[in-house]
């Protein structure tokens, strides 16, 4: 099958969103605007960096690549509309495997009622998927990293460290261990972007928000920096799955703070809005945990600090970093 036939075969038969006037088939897609702000993000996944044959099936490669992108829209408080996929396909990848990648994306997209509206197909040496995701947020309702205020409660959704633990088990675990820790493997392969939870939070006027792709040691610092305030966390309160306790303490620490790829949300809300947040969590069956508070302490503003085993120390940005020298 050549590039053109391939594109034809992945063209959706219809679009969920009536705002899509033109999807795949022209030079670019056309989306009609209404009274909302458009949210656009892109993330790339590369073989042997974000996934390998050992960790991720083709179906999960697609699913995960799209999930990471949807998560960035959730982190802006938005909902998703459409996506474009640029894929670099190595010669050794057969058609069925590529199809499975698209099946993974398609299943997740269907859940969020979002449409594939374009992309690009190239052959190359390393499987690479770049996704551009388009969403919307009501005018002036976007959630910025710089919107934290002193006294805000810091929260996270779900549990942290699951994906890193799953990756570890996939790479190093024997068959038996992989069975025992299926939960973590599933969390690595099929993360769940928190779109519905964040949509339920619209009543809350102000919220700083970020999604957990690199690990909260990074993301908490990003909020602190953008808000020029201190994010003070309590390690004891970081939510982890009960089975994570079966691993050595240093692994629990590293995975929950720096493991990344959980695609949960970390944010700050005014203390007065905590109940609204809890209700939104209940309605969407999302667990949320208060993990700290925002402070205004001149010499620490712009950084995150953590209480851990009776010590109070600076939480360094220890998550995954590309292009590190
Ligand atoms: N190569 C690039 N060209 C232009 N803008 C970029 C490039 N790489 C990143 N950005 C922009 O930098 C900002 C931060 O990007 P970053 O990738 O760190 O965020 P993220 O997607 O939330 O994190 P992650 O990639 O870990 O999921 C975003 O606005 C992004 O669009
Ligand atoms: C095979 C394999 N090895 C290592 C990892 C771990 N990993 C890769 S990128 C990343 C951070 C987010 O990246 P980005 O900033 O690009 O979103 C992490 C934690 C993996 N997923 N698969
Ligand atoms: Mg990115
Ligand atoms: Mg991202
Ligand atoms: Mg992000």
Automatic annotation (TrEMBL):
Pathways per UniProt: Cofactor biosynthesis; thiamine diphosphate biosynthesis; thiamine diphosphate from thiamine phosphate: step 1/1
Residue positions binding Mg(2+) 3: 27, 72, 211
SUPFAM superfamilies according to UniProt: PurM C-terminal domain-like, PurM N-terminal domain-like
Residues involved in Mg(2+) 5 binding: 214
Residues that, per the record, bind ATP: 102, 119-120, 145, 213
PurM-like C-terminal domain: residues covered: 149-296
Highest taxon above the source species: Bacteria
GO molecular function: ATP binding; magnesium ion binding; thiamine-phosphate kinase activity
Protein residues bound to Mg(2+) 2: 43, 72
PurM-like N-terminal domain: residues covered: 25-137
Residues the record lists as binding substrate: 50, 261, 320
Catalysed reactions, semicolon-separated: thiamine phosphate + ATP = thiamine diphosphate + ADP
GO biological process: thiamine biosynthetic process; thiamine diphosphate biosynthetic process
Role played: Catalyzes the ATP-dependent phosphorylation of thiamine-monophosphate (TMP) to form thiamine-pyrophosphate (TPP), the active form of vitamin B1.
Protein name stated in the entry: Thiamine-monophosphate kinase
